[in-house]
Amino acid sequence: MASHRSLLTSLLALAASLASLSCTAHWSAIVKYSDLAAPGEQSIIAGVYLAALEDVDHSFTLEDSLSAIRRRLGEYTQGSVRLPGYWEDSITDEIKAALADSPLIEPADPRLITEVASTRGLALENGHEGGGQRRLWLSRPGFNNDSTIAVIRSVELGPSFGLETVLLLARRPGYRWKVFHGLVLGGYIS
Questions:
Q1: H or E stretch including 76?
Q2: Rounded to the nearest 10 degrees, what angle do helices 110-119 and 44-52 cross at?
Q3: 60 bridge partner residues
Q4: Which of 20-29, 50-59, 72-81 has the lowest average pLDDT?
Q5: Neighbours of 32 (CB within 10 A)
Q6: Is the model's pLDDT at 175 over the cut of 50?
C-alpha cells in the first residue's frame, strides 16, 4: 500500500513538473534573431532604430515631445509595461535589465533617426508642429548587460489611429537587431 502511494505521489509530481514545463515559453519560442550581419560601422543604437523602423513604410513627422504626442493619444495610453507571466525567467530578467537601463521617456536622438530613416528611403520632418499626418515618437533604447536585448518605446499617430508600444529587440553579436515582441501600452482606431 505504501509503495502504491509512493508511486502515485511520484507520478503526480512528474505530471506537475511536465505541466509546469509546458506552460513556460523558452527562448527559442519567443526570441527570433536576424540572420543578417550588422554593418561594421553601424552603432548598436542605430541598429535598434533601424529595426524599430523596419515596418514603417511611410514618411512621418518625428515628434520631439513625448508629452505632446501622448496628449494626442489621450486616455488610450495605459503606460505600464507588463511582461507575459509564462515566459522563461531568464528572458524576463534580461528584459527587466534593459527596462532598468532606460526609463523610456527620454527622446531618441533626432539626428540618428533622420540618418537611419534616410537609409530606408523614408522622409521625415522634425518637431511636434510638423505638417505630416503620421507622427512618430521614439525613446532612447535601454539595453541588458551584454547589449543583446533592447527595449524602445514607440508612439505612433495616424489620421485615424494611435498606438503606444514597447518594442522588445534581440541580436546576436555581429548580427542585426530584430523586433521579437511588442507590448501594447494603449491605442485606438477610429
A1: none
A2: 60
A3: 124
A4: 72-81
A5: 12
A6: yes
